[in-house]
Design goal:
Shape of chain B: elongated
Number of strands of chain B: 8
Largest sheet of chain B: 5 strands, mixed, barrel
Number of domains of chain B: 1
Strand content of chain B: 25-35%
Structural class of chain B: alpha+beta
Helix content of chain A: 55-70%
Number of helices of chain B: 4
Order of helices and strands of chain B: HEHEEEEEEHHE
CATH architecture of chain B: Beta Barrel
Oligomer: heterodimer
Number of helices of chain A: 20
CATH superfamily of chain B: Nucleic acid-binding proteins
Number of domains of chain A: 4
Helix content of chain B: 40-55%
Distance between the termini of chain B: 54 Å
Shape of chain A: globular
Number of strands of chain A: 11
Strand order of the largest sheet of chain B: 2-4-5-7-6
Radius of gyration of chain A: 27 Å
Strand content of chain A: 5-15%
Distance between the termini of chain A: 54 Å
CATH topology of chain B: OB fold (Dihydrolipoamide Acetyltransferase, E2P)
CATH class of chain B: Mainly Beta
Chain lengths: 660, 180
């Protein structure tokens, strides 16, 4: 009964979504208030029904209802409750339901927090969100219904993929989807503005916090995915340039470009056509990501079961979304003004460099991800593109990006004097170079790549320091005014600084890990030890342990440094009972300076194990950097100016406020 | 320089920078393409020596030999085979009789030295490359017709099974690799 209710309410939600995508739009066209005000209640009721469907599916999992095909395929009576709930989005159908739920959450949030928007504009936004919702509800009901029955019911379920049985997996998909789907808000704002012809500074200001919010979720989702892969896949890498990772990274890159170009659109009225295009692209790339993952054209950790009709549906949906939005853009874009002129050296021009680099980086990732698929589709052979390509491209593109990241925030809008700015930043340049060389020397290796990576990190920190000093203690300013000046710095500016500092921390971690990590595969039995980077790993015990739904061989490794005990880790090799697949559960000891990582490979006939031990300096800084970027985004979107009434600040649009 | 000339100079400079950048990018792209060859292609010397490529198929049953850190096995597409050696930890789901893709270089001795071994992530999954190799071999066997099939019931049976596996490619996961 519960699954049928869930199935039924999805139809209700679909019906409401159809009305929501038509009535407010017609209302905005006819200027009929009665029609336009329907948008919000429709969106809210749709959200209620989708939430109900999600609750029904969760109930089916909790009750171990194996007469539901999806539950039988993704759960098991032995699966702990914790993972039974997470299993709701552990497969294709349920994750689509979660995706639809996210669309509703965003739509309701827009309806709730954007009541100050002009009614026709809000009505159009919600109508566009409704259309997206229709697309995904149809997709689910036609090709991937999570409530399909399995009759007769299975005696027990086939269990959740063991790889997904990890706490990180419980929040990784929801966060990632919040990010993906969040860009639909920027998309809807852009389409609504193109329809209504109100692309102005106010539009940019309304769009910014929503875009930043989506970006924060996406950053979190990607970072969490990387952390999960590091801990769970058992061989200590944190990013693989896997096509599905790339699929989430492309919207992130475009979203980052969008955040920066929105700054120009809001402050200077410039880049508007480009900003709109980025908003359309960010969501289109999210959809492309969905297509790549759901269609089964990719081989990846994330790709679920193949069903050509699903791939076809999303492809058609993708073509409709991209095609219609680009057509609308081509039709309306000529009417978008160019905004104010700016000099060759100005904050606008540096943000232009930022956007160029991010756009090229996106194109490079797109090329590396799609080219093999095209070749394959055309029957021209199977190829893959190696990680060295992506690494090389990013090293090449990120260097100029980071250079301008240091300069941009100190540069004035409209026009600035490069000579004077160079003087301000000269010391930062020297200090950061010396620091990079010193750090390399301390760690024991000075190469171009290491020094370059470390320099990027120190350069950002040094230029941020100069920037902050200039704000707190301008030339001729008094030291006792510093606190007051600090209070005048907007949250948006603090957010920018925190996010940029996050990039520095991230770069530092990447440079250190890529240069100095040491890994070794060794044959070990109880009592054997091995040494890397001054740490001695000794296997002191090997025993079988029982988990709720698996058995495992667990090693006990005592790690010492010059005879002093540092840590004890317990890596496992698990065999999950239902799918009878082995799974490596790594043993990691982590602190701010380094991770010590032990994973058990396979047992030799002699009884010894092949063990991989790794020393990874500063790897947690990579995720720490992601967290700081997120924190920056949260600060920026909490800025006061997004909450005060729009009229009060409309005149400061061309202001000198130093936020980017 | 007049402002106009200055702007032209900047535009030309920017275009040149973009050109160089794109050139470098495509060069990096080209030198990092990894091609895929089936065991049949490798056995008939179609694969390059000294360049990294991928080979895929099934791990032939009974061929996996561990010698300390080094492991040797044979990859087959049911028509021809390639011997592979690899040092280090194999992925969790590497199994005899199951699909596998190895990336590395072909040595002068005809042994494929793998630097990376990828296997499937769940029991239904077959790496697309491996599935393709099996499918091609199956097609070839079919073309050769009844004579061969009757003579080698085992091979035909395996090819049939491989064809079925190819049709049921259900990627749930790749990248379950280990490498260095």
């Amino acid at each position: 009964m519960i699954p049928e209710i869930g199935h039924l309410v999805l139809y209700f939600a679909l019906a409401l979504a159809v009305v929501q995508s038509v009535v407010p739009l017609v209302g905005a066209h006819k200027n009929s208030t009665e029609w336009m005000v329907l948008a919000r209640p429709l969106a809210n009721w749709q959200g209620v029904f989708v939430a109900l469907a999600l609750a029904c599916l969760t109930a089916s999992f909790v009750r171990n209802d194996f007469s539901v095909l999806y539950v039988a395929s993704n759960s098991n009576s032995e699966l702990p409750m914790f993972y039974r709930v997470a299993a709701v989005w552990g497969g294709h159908e349920g994750s689509m339901l979660l995706w639809v739920m996210m669309i509703s959450v965003w739509t309701m949030a827009v309806g709730r927090y954007s009541q100050r928007l002009p009614l026709p504009f809000l009505a159009r936004i919600l109508a566009v969100m409704g259309m997206i919702s229709v697309g995904f509800l149809l997709f689910m009901l036609l090709t991937s219904n999570p409530f399909d029955r399995l009759l007769p019911a299975a005696a027990d379920g086939r269990d959740l993929n063991p790889l997904l049985q990890d706490p990180g997996m419980i929040i990784h998909p929801p966060m990632l989807y919040m990010g993906y789907v969040g860009f639909s808000v920027a998309f809807a704002f852009a389409v609504a503005a193109l329809l209504g012809g109100n692309l102005d500074a106010a539009w940019a200001r309304w769009t910014r916090p929503w875009t930043t919010a989506a970006w924060v979720f996406l950053t979190f989702g990607i970072g969490l995915g990387s952390w999960w892969a590091y801990n769970e896949l058992g061989w200590g890498g944190w990013w693989f340039w896997d096509p599905v990772e790339n699929a989430s990274f492309m919207p992130w890159l475009v979203g980052t470009a969008l955040i920066h170009s929105l700054a120009v659109s809001e402050k200077r009225g410039g880049f508007k056509a480009w900003t709109v295009l980025l908003a359309l692209m960010a969501f289109s790339l999210s959809l492309l990501g969905a297509f790549l993952v759901r269609s089964g054209v990719l081989s990846s950790v994330h790709a679920f079961a193949v069903d050509p009709s699903r791939g076809m549906f999303i492809l058609v949906f993708l073509v409709i979304v991209i095609g219609s939005s680009l057509t609308l853009f081509a039709w309306r874009a000529p009417k978008i003004g160019l905004g104010q002129r700016f000099g060759v050296f100005s904050r606008e021009s540096l943000l232009l460099v930022n956007n160029m680099m991010l756009a090229v980086a996106t194109a490079a990732v797109l090329l590396g991800t799609l080219y093999p698929l095209f070749l394959d589709a055309l029957g021209m052979g199977k190829i893959s593109v190696g990680p060295p390509y992506f690494d090389a491209v990013f090293a090449l593109l990120m260097a100029p990006l980071v250079v301008v990241m240091g300069i941009g925030p100190l540069t004035r809008w409209k026009n600035d004097n490069p000579g004077a700015l160079f003087k301000r930043l000269r010391s930062a340049l020297v200090v950061s170079l010396l620091a990079a060389l010193a750090m390399g020397a301390w760690a024991g290796k000075i190469t171009l790549a290491t020094t370059g990576g470390l320099w990027m990190a120190f350069w950002i920190v040094a230029s941020l320091t100069v920037d902050l000093k200039g704000r707190l203690l301008p030339a001729g300013g008094q030291a006792n005014q510093m606190l007051n000046r600090a209070k005048q710095i907007t949250l948006a500016t603090w957010g920018m600084m925190a996010a940029h500092l996050g990039v520095a921390v991230f770069s530092f971690g990447v440079a250190m890990v890529m240069t100095f990590d040491v890994e070794r595969d060794v044959k070990m039995g109880v009592g054997d030890s091995t040494e890397i980077s001054g740490f001695t790993f000794k296997m002191t015990e090997l025993k079988e342990v029982q988990g709720p739904n698996y058995v495992a061989m667990q090693g006990r490794f005592e790690i010492t440094e010059q005879g002093k005990p540092v840590a004890t880790v317990f890596p496992q090799k698990r065999i999950y009972r239902v799918q009878s697949n082995p799974m490596t559960e790594s043993g990691v000891h982590s602190n701010a300076l380094r991770d010590l990582y032990v994973s058990m490979g396979e047992q030799l006939p002699t009884g010894e194990w092949i063990v991989r031990v790794q020393h990874k300096p500063f790897i947690v800084w990579i995720w720490g950097g992601c967290l700081m970027m997120m924190a920056g985004g949260v600060l920026a979107m909490s800025d006061r100016r997004y909450r005060v009434k729009q009229g009060a600040r409309a005149t400061t649009g061309s202001g000198t406020e130093a936020t980017a | 320089m007049k402002p106009r000339q200055k702007r032209v100079a900047i535009a030309v400079g920017a275009l040149a920078a973009v050109g160089v950048g794109v050139g470098l990018l495509l060069n990096a792209f080209n030198s990092n393409l990894v091609f895929f060859y089936t065991p049949t292609q490798v056995a008939s010397k179609e694969a390059p020596q000294g360049r990294t490529f991928r080979v895929g198929g099934l791990v032939e049953s009974g061929t996996v030999v561990r010698d300390g850190m080094t492991v040797r096995f044979i990859v087959t597409d049911t028509a021809r085979t390639v011997p592979v050696k690899y040092e280090g930890v194999l992925p969790d789901l590497f199994k005899e009789g199951k699909g596998v893709v190895a990336q590395g270089q072909l040595g002068p001795d005809g042994v494929f030295a793998a630097r990376e071994v990828l296997a499937k992530h769940d029991e239904n999954y077959m790496p697309p490359e491996a599935a393709e190799a099996l499918e091609q071999a199956a097609k070839m066997n079919a073309r050769m017709g009844g004579t061969l099939a009757q003579g080698q019931p085992g091979a035909a049976g395996a090819a049939g099974a491989a064809g079925a596996a190819g049709a049921a490619v259900s990627p749930s996961a790749m990248g379950a690799g280990v490498g260095k």
